[in-house]
Write a structure and sequence with these properties.
Number of helices: 12
Structural class: mainly alpha
Number of domains: 2
Shape: globular
Largest sheet: none
Order of helices and strands: HHHHHHHHHHHH
Length: about 290
């Protein structure tokens, strides 16, 4: 029974990979018609309806709390910003670059956790950060004379997602999944509304765009649900490497559907990021074991 848990986690991670890949495709298809604020507005609107409907059917709406609204706001501000940057990046640069740079999120968590969570910045964490950011530079290949805004957006979204992860870690102590998703969709709906009002643009989806917007909304929820289920079945050191399988999948999609070139620099940089994340995960696993024995 225990041996089957990693296999079940792998099945859930397939759901994660498919969800994120469909989100990237939908974001690319919507880019000519809707800006990122409009995409986020409709994503949150549909997402809120889904969360309330599922919460009603499952009887979990009573789990919604109002005691940590400040932390929910902080989390959702970081996530809203990161998701807008992510949609901007997928519209203009190859999928493989976006996903490889997004995978640096755990490295930003390792670097920022000592400041926001009071965790120790160990030598192994520093080593993983150094190796990981070497990979980021190889993937991004920044031209400092003319920086690509989309590359910067992909790098910045990883920092925002790291902040979102750290606040989520605090929220999961006493907040349910329904509660977190409810405030995520409601607060980000408000943020999206403010953004489209300030920019003076709110274009309704047309034709097939309704399908893409709905796909973004559904997959945005299923991706996080699937990875949460996977982490509940297997340790992070098993789950996170499975998440990296998104890179070859999305690279193949980019090659077949959008004629994106296969670049060895992205592969090599992603391998460095992957190695760095594994080092950090292994160090965290050892710390947890030592704390348990102590």
């Amino acid at each position: 029974m225990v041996a089957s848990q990693p296999l079940k986690a792998a099945v859930w991670m397939i759901g994660t990979m498919v969800s994120f890949s469909l989100m990237a495709i939908s974001g690319r298809e919507l880019a000519p018609e809707l800006n990122t604020f409009e995409i986020m507005f409709f994503r949150s609107l549909i997402g809120l309806v889904l969360v309330v409907t599922i919460g009603t059917l499952s009887g979990t709406l009573h789990q919604i709390k109002t005691d940590r609204l400040g932390l929910h706001m902080l989390r959702n501000t970081a996530h809203f910003t990161g998701q807008n940057l992510w949609f901007l990046a997928v519209a203009f640069i190859p999928f493989s670059q976006v996903f490889a740079l997004e995978f640096s999120t755990p490295l930003w968590v390792a670097l920022l956790a000592p400041v926001f969570l009071g965790e120790a910045l160990t030598r192994r964490r520093l080593l993983s950060v150094g190796i990981g950011f070497s990979g980021v530079l190889i993937v991004a290949r920044p031209d400092f004379s003319q920086l690509n805004p989309a590359i910067l957006a992909a790098m910045a979204c990883a920092i925002c997602f790291a902040c979102s992860l750290m606040t989520t870690k605090k929220l999961t102590i006493d907040q349910s999944t329904t509660c977190i998703l409810f405030w995520l969709t409601l607060m980000q709906l408000g943020m999206g509304l403010v953004a489209v009002v300030l920019t003076g643009s709110l274009s309704a989806p047309q034709g097939i765009d309704y399908i893409w917007v709905t796909t973004v909304s559904i997959c945005g929820l299923t991706a996080h649900f699937c990875i949460a289920r996977a982490l509940a079945l297997a340790p992070a050191i098993v789950v996170i490497p499975l998440d990296f399988l998104r890179l070859p999948l999305i690279s193949l999609i980019g090659f077949l559907a959008y004629n994106e070139a296969f670049e060895w620099a992205v592969v090599f940089g992603a391998m460095l990021i992957f190695t760095a994340v594994l080092i950090n995960l292994q160090a965290e696993r050892q710390r947890n074991r030592a704390a348990f024995k102590g």
